[in-house]
Amino acid sequence: MIERLDHFVLTVADIQRSVSFYTEVLGMKEIDFAGRKALSYVGGKINLHEVGKEFEPKARHPKAGSADLCFITLEPLSKVADHLRAKGIEIIEEAVRRTGSRSPLLSLYIRDPDGNLIELSNEEES
Known about the structure:
Elements: E1 7-12, H1 15-25, E2 29-33, E3 36-41, E4 44-50, E5 68-72, H2 77-86, E6 93-99, E7 104-111, E8 117-123
Parallel strand pairs: 1-4, 5-8
Antiparallel strand pairs: 2-3, 3-4, 6-7, 7-8
């Protein structure tokens, strides 16, 4: 049985542009390993593959901008929204209720530099 997700791979057009976005905008930590780049956050890691330079084995049809990701934050969404606006990030939808894996969510949506949809959420009491 599956216990948890350890890491996932995100295929991007430009690794350094993605590292900058995820570290500067979302507060993740850049990791260098085995000549590769990854991003860490509490409880997980994102390995980065550049389009056309993916590591084997890989997804059958890797492409940038095809992911839809949800991250939980402990920061109130209003504070997150203020931070995003200060960084010049467009908020697509704000303060919408969604269903999470463990609880109801209050979410906002942005896009990363490749156009991946990023949902940033607060867990709510059920």
